[in-house]
Recover the amino acids of this structure.
């Protein structure tokens, strides 16, 4: 008799899990409480996979021998409580995929910086000719990648939600970039619960695996000392030159394996946070067997993800930068830290309990004008009313970019780095960034047309 797998959620992870389960011969039922996107529905139909949408039919779910749930479904959801009460094993798609993996895994997590680090690591391996797949929170689901073909390496961006659903997952190289308070509503408002979730990346490591972590992060430094971690530990630092991988104030130094040094100017990434991301990615690439020559070549050709310090255009000597992915204050720290100023800073949206004192000093030093983009801007205006000389607000992106250009002077940077979620005016941070990019490019054409 076939084992019955029920998959809750039919997005990228759920559909990927269904495709892999189908290939492995399981009986499958996919259930999504929301409407399923057409592209995923067509895949399920093409593979003759039974599914429902707009509801969870309990009778069709509770008879499963294994539940694979979307990382977005919290444990406190009623259907999950019932599955747990019935004693059914519940895992994440990433855990399911890992059970069939043949290659090795580089897994990257952290509150901030994980997308850039994941994309850079993947780029370095791919450009060096390694048979590598990109998976997890960026790219396709791990299960889908495994279903389609085998790879020698899988570079995975992994969230705390995904880590919560793992039981055997074990990366050959695990990277933890930082931990700052985030998603605490999911973790009973206890930071330690969130920390424990992130450190699940090390749980099954053996002495043949390597754990890369940022040693200057106070939480990581404390937790690494307090926890039994079986994997080899590789610390990276911006200040401690005794660590194998560090920044000496001029160049990044890689002192293990093949020793060499790289200046940030030899890469395409700006800012101190990207020194951390680059040191982590290069270290992972070295552990995967890449040479210095291959790494240098890859660093010179890397393009970062959209919406993360993405340089959109220069208009009248003013650079417009899309950092819409900066949805919390800690991300904005990185954005502000990437420029010496002056800045026209665009912020606002749905506040997530932000502590703006964390960036007050940097804002005071660098920001010429703050433009609030959101429906409710009182908290931002109150936080920076005595810090920034000029504060304006709008709910129109087209008006926003014209306002920003009027406020800026030649050599300034207009930085969209919102510190807030986007759901008051936009579908998501991508929509916010896309609208900003389009408005900037439209303004550029308009300005250039007038100058002819």
């Amino acid at each position: 008799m076939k084992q019955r797998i029920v998959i809750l959620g039919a997005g990228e992870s759920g559909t990927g899990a269904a495709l892999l389960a189908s290939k492995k011969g399981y009986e499958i039922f996919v259930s999504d409480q929301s409407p399923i996107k057409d592209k995923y529905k067509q895949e399920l139909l093409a593979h003759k996979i039974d599914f429902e949408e707009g509801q969870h039919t309990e009778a069709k779910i509770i008879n499963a021998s294994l539940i694979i749930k979307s990382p977005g479904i919290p444990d406190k959801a009623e259907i999950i409580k019932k599955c747990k009460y019935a004693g059914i094993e519940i895992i994440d798609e990433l855990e399911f995929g890992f059970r069939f993996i043949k290659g090795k895994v580089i897994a990257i997590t952290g509150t901030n910086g994980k997308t850039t680090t994941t994309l850079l690591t993947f780029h370095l391996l791919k450009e060096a000719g390694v048979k590598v797949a990109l998976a997890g929170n960026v790219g396709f689901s791990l299960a889908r990648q495994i279903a389609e073909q085998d790879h020698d390496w899988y570079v995975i961006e992994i969230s705390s939600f995904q880590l919560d659903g793992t039981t055997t997952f074990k990366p050959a190289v695990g990277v933890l970039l930082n931990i700052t308070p985030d998603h605490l509503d999911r973790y009973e408002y206890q930071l330690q619960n969130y920390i424990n979730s992130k450190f699940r990346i090390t749980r099954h490591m053996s002495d043949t695996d390597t754990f890369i972590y940022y040693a200057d992060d106070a939480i990581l430094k404390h937790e690494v000392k307090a926890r039994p971690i079986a994997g080899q530990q590789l610390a990276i630092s911006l200040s401690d030159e005794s660590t194998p991988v560090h920044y000496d104030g001029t160049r990044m130094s890689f002192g293990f394996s093949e020793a060499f040094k790289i200046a940030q100017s030899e890469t395409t990434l700006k800012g101190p946070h990207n020194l951390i991301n680059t040191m982590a990615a290069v270290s992972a690439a070295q552990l995967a067997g890449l040479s210095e020559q291959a790494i240098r070549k890859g660093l010179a050709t890397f393009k970062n993800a959209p919406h993360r310090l993405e340089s959109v255009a220069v208009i009248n000597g003013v650079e417009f930068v899309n950092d819409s992915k900066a949805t919390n204050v800690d991300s904005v720290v990185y954005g502000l830290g990437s420029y010496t100023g002056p800045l026209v800073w665009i912020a606002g949206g749905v506040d997530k309990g932000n502590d703006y004192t964390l960036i007050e000093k940097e804002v005071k030093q660098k920001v010429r004008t703050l433009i609030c983009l959101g429906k409710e801007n009182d908290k931002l205006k109150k936080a920076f009313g005595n810090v920034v000389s000029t504060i304006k607000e709008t709910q129109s992106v087209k008006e926003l970019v014209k306002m920003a250009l009027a406020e800026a002077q030649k050599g300034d940077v207009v930085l969209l780095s919102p510190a807030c979620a986007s759901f008051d005016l936009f579908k998501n941070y991508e929509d916010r960034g896309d609208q900003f990019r389009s408005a900037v490019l439209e303004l550029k054409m308009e300005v250039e047309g007038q100058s002819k």
Notes: The chain has a mean pLDDT of 93. Residues 357 and 383 are 8 Å apart (CA to CA). The chain has three domains: 4-92, 101-299, 310-451. The domain at 4-92 is CATH 3.40.50.720 (Rossmann fold).
